Fold this protein.
Amino acid sequence: MTATTTATTSSTSTSKGKDAAPDDRPAQAWRELRVTVRDGLSLYGRHYPAPDSKRRPVLCLAGLTRNSRDFHVLASELSGPGPDARDVFTMDCRGRGHSNAAGNWKDYVIPIEMLDVQDFMAAHHLHDAGIVGTSRGGLITMVLGAVQPGLLGPVVLNDIGPVIDHEGLVRISSYVGRTPTPASWEDATQLVAASGRVHFPNVSDEEWAEIARQWFNEFDGRPAPGYDRNIAKTFSIKDGAVPELWPQFETLKRKPLLVIRGENSDLLSEQTVTEMLRRHPQASSFTVEAQGHAPLLRDAPTIAAISRFFAQHDAV
């Protein structure tokens, strides 16, 4: 099928209110984006501009049921004032956040979502762009590296690798498509905190309230589903172990790589990270203390590590 990609940009919004950073850092302007991909779906995204920046832009890709709001704090920092400021783009994959749901649930698969990423990048002239791929977003990145490596610059894989631990898959399958929609934002905060405190013991109540705003959409002032529950139909542990993706990972060997792992992760093991570093000549790793799958990318040390990584490789 031939791509018929178009892009539209809405008026500028600001990062206040429900997207505010926990330490009240100055608000950064961002623009809402709409891209019509090759099968006619309209996908949502954001652009955090860094005017006059000569730095390589970055595209952030979220996890299985997550969306562009996950990257608000990171994107605000990377595009904020300073010599390393760069444009940052985030996108909601089909059926997530504010993107259209797929007409057929069987389209919630990585190859089709990878095509959506290609269309999004084409619409915004992103070539040789830095990538931050969290979980599912990292899997899409590895496949994209095999299909169209020229789109990728330096890559950050957030708590994902070629080997996915079964324990984490079991946990994820227990809630995908089954999480109830809370009646209020207070209930939403309690829900996400209860599900996350074991692996994220140091996250504050205030942050859980902000994370709830990432997980759920909003309708008439109340929480609404943040993803199409049909995604669960394509995610089953009954199908057996997930195939290892070492061949796809190998396609990233010519790209600088930063592997981020949550200290409490049940999806990406230390052994897999060690093997990734052994196989990749330009790879480094960073462990996020007291966080599980997937690190939230909201804390200062992690943001600093990502910023340094991209700055180091801008000239490459």
